[in-house]
Amino acid sequence: MDSCYKMQPSEVARSAQLAMILEVSASPKPGNIDRIHDFADTRYEHFLASATGVYPVFERAASGKEKIGELLKEAVLESNKWQKGGNTHFGAFLLLLPLAKAAGQLSQENETFDMKKTVERARWIVKHTDVEDSINFYLAFEKANVCVQDVKDLDLNDSDSITNLRKNQTSLFELMEISENYDMIAKEWTHGFKLCSRCSEQITDLMEGNDFCTDINCSIVYTFLKLLSNNPDTFIQTKFNRETAAEVSEKATAIVTHIETYGYEASIPSIIELDEELLKKKINPGSTADIIIGGLFLSIMGGMRF
């Protein structure tokens, strides 16, 4: 649903914060940190601290004063400043910053929030990134300690890559085009934030009334499983392999079918079983979580309340 209100930059920033907090708080969410589960070096509280600390960066993004690469680097630095748990939101920042910048621009143009217009503007923004955005992406990556697959001819851990970027004048959008076949976040950039939009529609529909979800937690967990069932997680693929990612998606599909047949409450034991299995094997669908955050942001901006 579209809001009849024109949001100020501070409201856009709070919407981004709330999206990050809601996603990490949803439970049981198989394989990922939530309000019940921590990892050895990264805890639930680290995600809360990160989401809180990056507020000024999102406010600046919505004010339209800085480029995506610079904002990304600043978001990582602020996140690191407020917690010691390592990378918490790098993928989420890549999605949220262009969406927040787009929402802010449209608001300044006296447009009320509209999801289609927002994602179209966000796609325009990312397509017009340049080599300076790419360089700042690399600098942000270096600070964030992210697990990703290197793009062709550009080793993310090699300082010479920045020299190559300058030489070839490679934009950040072009980097994402190279990565789109094995990175869900990159594909969101190059395909107009389609999965974020789909998740937003799913979450909003669930919150407006259905047979098996009655609250925001259920809506997020179900949408997470639905997204995972249809889209093998590329973070799992990078950390393990394609087969592992596909196997996790198959198990998510079985749970989604069970939820749709028998209801959410009856399916919780199956969700917990998958959660425990993935946690034991240290398999975490991190890219799926990032896209859920993007969807939540769009839903919140669109007026969803709970």
UniProtKB/TrEMBL annotation:
It holds the Pfam family CitG. One of its GO terms (molecular function) is ATP binding. Signal peptide: none annotated. This is Triphosphoribosyl-dephospho-CoA protein.
